[in-house]
Amino acid sequence: MEPRLGPEVAALHQGWPTLLLWFSALSSSFSSPASLSPSLVLQVRSSYTSGRTFLGLDKCNACIGTSICKKFFKEEIRFGNWLASPLRLPPEYLPSYPANYSDDSKTWRPVEMSRLVSKAQNELSDRRICASAAAPETCSIERVLRKTGRFQKWLQAKRLTPDLVQGLPSPFLRCPSQRLLDRVVRRYAEVADAGSIFMDHFTDRDKLRLLYTLAVNAHPILLQIFPGAEGWPLPKYLGSCGRVLVSTSTRPFQEFYGAPPDQAADLAYQLLGVLESLRNNDLNYFFYFTHVDAGMFGIFSNGQLFIRNASTLGVIDKQEGSQAATRAEENKDIFSCLVSGCQAELPSCDAIPEKHSIVQVCRQLLPRLLQGKFPSLVQKEIDNMLAHCGQATLPDSEILRAASQLKDILRPLRTCDPRFAYRYPDCKYNDKF
Fold first, then answer.
1. pLDDT at position 68, please?
2. Looking at the chain, which terminus has fewer C-beta neighbours within 10 angstroms, N or C?
3. Which residues of the chain, if any, have pLDDT below 70?
4. What would the pLDDT profile of 64-108 be if each residue is shown by its tens digit?
5. Residue 298 burial by CB count (10 A; 0-12/13-18/19+): exposed, middle or buried?
6. DSSP for 325-380, written as a single string
7. Given this model, what pLDDT does residue 297 score?
8. What 3 state SS string does 25-50 have?
């Protein structure tokens, strides 16, 4: 007689995705190991270790109630088998894994499950947390973080204020305004009753999840508070916990370096438009990148360009003003050092010029995308504008003017056809597209 398996393990036994096993093992939601075959028990035990590493918190019960766990348990996120055996864990070195998501079990669309930090950073972070409490190397991460002075202040707080995030390493929190932090709390998707600027409805674990995510990588928070559905150039947030994020799938920007001229022109035009929207928008926030690389941008299947990784995105509130990061050294603690050196310093918010992101993009991304693809006279104009907008010593006004002129050159080089579904067929009838 075949051993009797719990529903999650039984699904995996029939070829279901490995990550469901991770969550099943971590939450002990399947039947007793005594009813499993010895080989299956061994694999379940090994999945516990990888699941703990992947999540970044002790057990899945630290993530129970979050959107990512709910989607896994409801089988709304499904993965193909990475290796021949359906019960083997995926390679730990990969930064992301392709998957499919459905909210009706009928229509499926591609998504990505991403590590917010690398495996090496995971291990270093765990060691730092345990060492901060003089605990063994395999200590309870959640228990140690709960005892910190910063988290004790969070427990007492009714509202997320700038002093509670001082010293955290994210550029997003370098100089936060109260308006920005209220937006974080009001739009935080991992609590049952979002919408208030006060944290009265947050449980202790809700506060720890939010603090931990802000300390490790603020990318999931940015997806929630500036959603693509409202016109922001970010993919859709589908869930996160610990060091794991699920979001809409995109192809990385570098895969398009060999694109044909009309597609290259379209992507460059979009990228310059994204930077413009980050600089000038209705909410009066100024977004800037501390650094850029091709992997930070992605393209959806409809041809639209989005920010794929917002972890280096800083935010300055032009409407309310931002509280300067004062007494940074005094506010550093274990949450300041989870994924980077504790001595890492970010530039003053007052020192960030409007041209900051444009210069980086014109230097590092657009030349590789646009070089040698157009008739000589047009190519010369493009190269000239790239040289100007990538010249950091020029005044802001000249950099912005060069970027605008480059957009004007690129605009007629784009074509109107179904490959650019994000603006087709509108582009046939309206010059705006």
1. 74
2. N
3. 1-65, 72-73, 79-93, 119, 194, 242, 322-330, 341-347
4. 667 777 776 677 777 655 463 444 445 566 777 787 888 887 888
5. buried
6. --STGGG--GGGSSSS-TT-----GGG--TTHHHHHHHHHTHHHHHTT-S-HHHHH
7. 96
8. HHHCCCCCHHHCCHHHHHHHHHHHHH
State the pairing for strand pair 77-78/297-299: unpaired
Helix (H, G, I), strand (E, B) or coil at 135: coil
* Strands of the 251-252 sheet, one edge to the other: 251-252, 297-299, 305-307
**What is the C-alpha end-to-end distance of the chain, expressed in Å?**
64
pLDDT at residue 47 in the model: 36
DSSP 149-202: HHHHHHHH-SB--HHHHTT---GGGSS--HHHHHHHHHH-TTSTT---SB-TT-
pTM for this prediction: 0.81
pLDDT digits (tens, 9 = 90+) for 174-194: 889 999 999 999 999 888 776
User: Is the CB of residue 118 less than 8 Å from the CB of residue 110?
Assistant: no
Beta bridge partners of 101: 77, 109
User: Rounded to an integer, what distance in angstroms lies between the CA atom of residue 425 and that of residue 131?
Assistant: 58
Evaluate whether 286 touches 324 at the Cβ level (below 8 Å). no
Alpha carbon distance 33, 35 (integer Å): 5
Q: Cα-atom radius of gyration of the chain, to the nearest Å?
A: 23
> Per the structure block, which two tokens stand in for 238?
């589908």
